[in-house]
Specification:
There is one protein chain. This protein has 9 helices and no strands. The protein has a single domain, classed as Hypothetical protein af1432 (Orthogonal Bundle). The chain is globular. It is 74% helix and 0% strand. The protein is mostly helical and 168 residues long. The protein binds fe (ii) ion. Fe (ii) ion (FE2) binds next to helix 2.
Length: 168
């Protein structure tokens, strides 16, 4: 990870502290997103965008809970970019990078967009972690989720290992 990504992680931790659950969630999504990005052949610039988006993807949750008393994906997407933007600018990301990162944050629950590779990788990483964190109701058909949502070879490989673990 770049020094900037490390600073982004520190900022995210400071912002979410003492909510360790959210901090851990963001770190896990970051880890999977980064691994998917590297294995799928992203260049350093693309990886930096994806990693920052993964670190900050749920940054709107606290605001959503505060304003709407609800942490649903829609509210997170809506509020996340405005919470992330000043923090990203402070970290030294360029305006262009900030807009790209905010776009990913603002669409990470919009599963109908299939033509943005970085968004796809972020969505897959978030799904993998949400499955691990048992965010889905009992009886969920994870294979159906995989076939509907997952596109990258690496993301599919990761979700397959989770499905095997769940089914055994
Ligand atoms: Fe998430």
């Amino acid at each position: 990870m770049s020094e900037k990504t490390a600073m982004a992680i520190r900022k995210m931790i400071d912002y979410n502290s003492p909510d360790l659950r959210r901090i851990n969630h963001a770190l896990k999504v970051f880890g999977f997103a980064s691994a998917i990005g590297v294995e799928e052949g992203l260049n350093a610039k693309e990886l930096e965008i994806l990693e920052a988006a993964a670190v900050f993807h749920d940054i709107g949750i606290h605001k959503a809970e505060e304003i709407y008393n609800c942490a649903s994906g829609d509210y997170q997407q809506k509020l996340g970019p405005d919470v992330a933007r000043p923090q990203l600018l402070e970290l030294g990301y360029s305006l262009e990078q900030v807009e790209e990162i905010c776009y990913l944050i603002g669409h990470h629950h919009t599963y109908t967009i299939k033509d943005n590779p970085l968004l796809q990788m972020l969505i897959e990483a978030d799904f993998i972690v949400n499955i691990d964190e048992k965010d889905f109701p009992e009886g969920t058909d994870y294979k159906k989720i995989r076939d509907k949502i997952f596109i990258t070879k690496t993301g599919k490989k990761f979700i397959n290992s989770l499905i095997i673990e769940i089914e055994n």
